[in-house]
Amino acid sequence: MVHTSLDRIIALQKKPANIRNLCILAHVDHGKTTLADCLVASNGIISTRQAGKLRYLDSREDEQIRGITMKSSAISLHYQEGDREYLLNLIDSPGHVDFSSEVSTAVRLCDGAIVVVDAVEGVCPQTQVVLRQAWLENIRPVLVINKIDRLIMELKLTPQEAYAHLQKIMEQVNAVTGTLFTSRVMEGQAEKTKEEKRNESPNGDQVYDWSAGLEEVDDSHLYFSPDQGNVVFASAIDGWGLSIQHFAQIYSEKMGINPQVLLKTLWGDFYLNTKVKKIMKGAQAKGKKPLFVQLVLDNIWSLYEAVVTRRDKEKVEKVLASLGIKVMARDFRHSDPKVLLSAICSQWLPVSQAVLCILLYCVILFSLFVRLYYYYFGLFFDAAIAMVCNKLPSPLDITAERVENLMSVGVRRFDTLPARTQELKNAFLQCSSDGDAPVIVFVSKMFVVDAKALPQNKQRPLTQAEIAQRSELARQRHAERMAAGQMGTVNQQNQSLNAPSDVQSGGLCKGKLDELDTQVVKEDKTGEQNETFIAFARVYSGVVRKGQRIFILGPKYDPAQGLTMLPEQCSASDSLPAVPHLSCCSIENVYLLMGRELEELEEVPSGNVLGLKGLEDFILKSATVSSTPACPPFTPLNFEASPIVRVAVEPKHPGEMPKLVHGMRLLNQADPCAEVLIQETGEHVLVTAGEVHLQRCLDDLKDRFAKIEISASKPIIPFRETVVRPPKVDMVNEELGKQEKVAVIHQVKEEGSRVRSSETLHVDSSGLVTITTPSKHATVSVRAIPLPQEVTCLLEDNSELIRTVEQVNMSLREGRNLDISVRTLEAIADLKTKLESMLQGRKWRNAVHQIWAFGPRRCGPNILLNKLVDYQRPSLWQCLCREDKSGGDRAQIPSIREFDNSIVSGFQLATLSGPMCEEPLMGVCFSIERWDIQPPNLAQQDNMERNAKFQEALEERRALESTDALEVSPSESSQAKCREETSAADCYGPVSGQLIAAVKEACRHAFQAQPQRLMAAMYTCEIMATAEVLGRVYAVLGKREGRVVHEEMKEGTEIFIIKAVLPVAESFGFADEIRKRTSGLASPQMVFSHWQVVSSDPYWVPTTEEEYLHFGEKADSTNQALKYMNAVRRRKGLYVEEKIVEHAEKQRTLSKNK
Ligand SMILES: Nc1nc2c(ncn2[C@@H]2O[C@H](COP(=O)(O)OP(=O)(O)OP(=O)(O)O)[C@@H](O)[C@H]2O)c(=O)[nH]1
Ligand SMILES: [Mg+2]
To answer: Which residues are bridge partners to 646 per DSSP?
Structure first.
């Protein structure tokens, strides 16, 4: 436990083969930070006594108070194994679901991960998420099953039961890995089949391959198994951990068994046949203790029992007996436990053997325990770090597949990148730090440090010379004071005489001291700068130096474009033409990340994690940094949680608005997940992943970024608006007869159309809305149809793909040819086929080919259909068959095609905010069934003709007037009318604009002509609770409209896992309430899951006798949808049809004395 020197770390940074970049991942509270503490303590940064209590990497105050990690932070550690030295760049990540974006930023910079699983709780939702994240980033995980002590102390399991329990946990973890692996193999196989199909000759014999491809691929190395050396059993709080390897070594020496055999049999269905002294298979069948229980767990259990549970000597004797060790009676009775200890150890385990053995079997008295505790620590590091160093890859082991994945952004595939860019793949693979190696760095997030914490602003420790100088000055001053005192008392009259010399000498001292003081003040002042942004990054190639000039590549940067615009062999220090999404800047400082501290470095070579200063003006959240413009931007990070909770924030004092705006800008930059936007209403909105995240963002804003008092609105809950098929039952759950149903619908529609029908708008009984533009140049008929739910889900899940389709179509329209990967094309084709299979039936015949657009924002879950018989437009799926460029395009009158965009824009606007409460639409299909449009040139021609006629008529009239002033031309009235119309048409502006408004209105009315519903955002929430608080958990869930979907008991424990869905609208304060009601025994993890239709109709009013009886006259007390809708309308300042007092009656007081 030596304090590692900076020089040693700097030396190790230059040896990529000895570097391990790894992160600790787990579900919340499974012990990541405690584990990190143990590892940090091994380097002497904190004392071993504090490890587990300090939670060193939780450096924020709120992290310490709440006891959860909120930001991922890195630390560099040194580890020596034999004569090999390693540098571990360790990143601790948060486990709370609200901060899962921080996990993404950590995983991207690492090559390996320690996945921690709580031995009691087992695999939890976030465990699955982090395993998936590690898988997607192609990094190798190792497993630590932590909190084994809980199995002993809390669950009171026997070693045998604990073994079965641990096996189950291992199975659960492997099941998750297995699913990930299978899906990847299946994908690969599907791709291969498609490839073969493409290549196969048309008349060749077809051979069908029924294998899924799983048989051929060896996946054994992927799974966690103690005999593979990738599992450690630990109790981070008690500071111990063990791997099979240790025990194999110990027992092979003790029992004379080949360590390789022990390694293979220590975990599994093997037992020790003491008679024949052989390890045999089939422990379970023969009812024998498995080897692991016998040799490992039993010992740990007895250790705990002797030390923690009983603390008695009798037990110690039993342990001794079971081990067959005899200790001299004198030793046993000795008051000093060390004597007994050494007596046992000298017999049972030689001193040279690993410390673990001593710990496990020696006689322990409580006083000894503290000492043993430290031994355990030593062992723990061996177990965990050795596993990390042996099992996790170094930066040199980065795979070509991972590099290609990192380099291929969006629809671009690796082989379409420019040749110079493709060459950079080698730089990644070589991870070279040579002078000519290109610098490639990825910044995964920006984090903030207090400027005072920067090494250059810190008060540096005084040198020996300075200390000597200061003490000399202090001594002089003291002596002078003493002298002055003496003089004062002895000879006060002479004071004036002595004064000059005093002043002289004192002045000199004072001057010097002042100088020193001002130096300190100066340091303080510089420290009082604002917060400083540091980029959290990793070098993939080359060496990053202080002061170096580099290119910053934004996520949308295109190296092909950059290379053509920039001169060859240019560098970031040249003066260059502006290239989109590319900027140059200088690195101000380079830091080594040491948890709470930063260490200033001159340079950082390839393969290391580092901090960079000076990039805050160029990077918002993440970016790629390189010395060459040929470098492509890295693929964006995979974020698992989407921001959903929004609040509007405003300063308490309106004058501080600029500070708030500035603060929000900083917050946006400092948080990978938070979004900051200004709504059309002028509100400043903060969007966060959940309640805890929201609280942290608000605290940051208040205390760090804006430094003002702010007030936040209640969370703004998002809703969606949709239409549904007409209901089959009425509100009191009575079946609506067919006749009645039709009658009800007609009644509603007629009511609607009575109000809405006007000169330009007509709604027919089938819900078809026809609208005419004010200038009367165009008439459009639209109908709204509810989309099947699975289609809505499909569109929602594939919004990125739909956006790609739009991009490709756009580029085709512009005549450019975008290179899309085969995979993307197949995904598009797949989407099309799925849509075809889902949109079945007469109503949807040919609908997929008729899709005109998706909306809102061109990629949302609503469809615009082209049901016009006389209008052929290029298909949305044209990217799939680019060879036969749609003939329809040419066949169509180009002038009408010009209105295509107006219709799409109208549809986009209508779907962006619906008529119920101006929230976006979801799952609605608008089909344009008729249109009657006058092409603009015809309209123009028409206008010109009319104008010409009008001019003629005017001239005629003038001529007539001159001859006979009183005679009125018969054509005059018609001319006047014509002039009126012309000017009327003109005053409405261009037809395309009117058409946008008309289509938008038509869509809104068509929407209103159907039964409308709100859709609420839903959370899935997993709650772990013990049996005694189960009832209270259900009560809270019931009160908040939650629905339990699944409940199961964790095997071998008393914990229930409840899975429920809960509207986001009801979720605020839910976690707190559950925690309070169950005294902290249950805590929910909530993740956004889906949108669900709120079944009640917000516009419903009782009509029948039963309904009046059932719901009362207004029926507003039970109408949840109405409540939600009105709340949104009120927030947006829209009209709310609601009376506070309907029948005013004088209220009587109940008290008797009036
Ligand atoms: N009994 C027991 N408790 C442990 C062990 N390791 C950690 N804990 C406790 O578990 C709680 C959570 O520990 P942390 O290390 O903060 O957990 P974490 O995974 O970092 O939590 P987040 O960062 O919030 O996701 C703390 O109260 C620890 O004291 C262990 O081995 N045994
Ligand atoms: Mg933590």
So the answer is: 687, 716
Q: What does the alpha-carbon distance between residue 594 and residue 317 come to, in Å, rounded to a whole number? A: 47
Do the strands 710-712 and 645-651 form a parallel or antiparallel pair, or are they unpaired? antiparallel
Distance 45 CA to ligand 1 centre (A): 20
Q: What angle do CA 77, 80, 82 make, to 5 degrees?
A: 170
d(CA 410, CA 823): 11
Structure token digits, residue 230: 């990738």
Is the pTM value of this prediction over 0.70?
A: yes
Q: Is residue 236 in contact with ligand 1, taking CB distance under 6 Å?
A: yes
**Torsion sign over Cα 494, 500, 504, 506:** positive
* Residue 438, CA distances (Å) to 20, 1065, 1075 in order: 22, 51, 53
DSSP-assigned letters across all residues of 427-444: HHHHT--STTSPPEEEEE
Atom of ligand 1 nearest to the CA of 26: 19
CA-based nearest residue to 138, from 102, 101, 105, 112: 112
Q: Residue 664 above 80 pLDDT?
A: yes
Of 121, 106, 114, 111, residue with least CA distance to 141:
114
Residue range 715-748, pLDDT digits in tens: 888 899 999 887 776 665 666 655 454 445 545 5
Tokens read off for 760: 């330009």
Report yes or no: 921 and 721 within 8 Å, Cβ to Cβ. yes
The lowest-confidence range among 313-327, 405-419, 783-797 is 313-327
Q: Which H, E and C letters describe 1010-1051, residue by residue?
A: CCEEEEEEEEEEEEEEEHHHHHHHHHHHHHCCCEEEEEEECC
CA distances from 5 to 44, 82, 543 (A): 10, 19, 21
Contact 1098, 1119 (CB under 8 A): yes
State if residue 127 touches ligand 1 by the CB under 6 angstroms criterion: no
| H-only helix segments in 880-1029 | 887-891, 894-897, 900-912, 936-963, 972-987, 991-1008
Q: Which pLDDT belongs to residue 597?
A: 86
Between β-strands 862-866 and 924-933, what pairing exists: parallel, antiparallel or unpaired? parallel
For atom 23 of ligand 1, the residue with the nearest CA is 69
pLDDT tens digits, one per residue of 963-1019: 443 333 444 444 444 444 444 455 666 777 888 888 898 899 888 888 889 999 999
Q: Give the environment of ion ligand 2: residues with CB less than 5 A.
A: 32-33, 69
- Give the whole-angstrom CA distance, residue 135 versus residue 103: 13
Torsion angle in degrees (nearest 10) through CA of 243, 247, 250, 253? -120
Ligand 1 centroid – CA 408 distance (Å): 38
Torsion of CA 1105, 1109, 1113, 1116, to 10 degrees: -120
How many CB atoms are located within 10 Å of the residue 662 CB? 16
Nearest 5°: phi and psi at 438? -65, 145
Q: What is the pLDDT of residue 239?
A: 72
- Which residue in the block uniquely carries the two structure tokens 């659960």? 172
CA proximity to 903, closest of 770, 1001, 999? 999
Q: Is the Cα dihedral 614, 620, 622, 623 positive or negative?
A: negative
Residues of 148-184 as b/e, b for ≥16 C-beta within 10 angstroms?
Answer: bbbbbeebebebbebbbbbeebbeebbebbeebbeee
CA–CA separation, 243 and 852 (whole Å) = 61
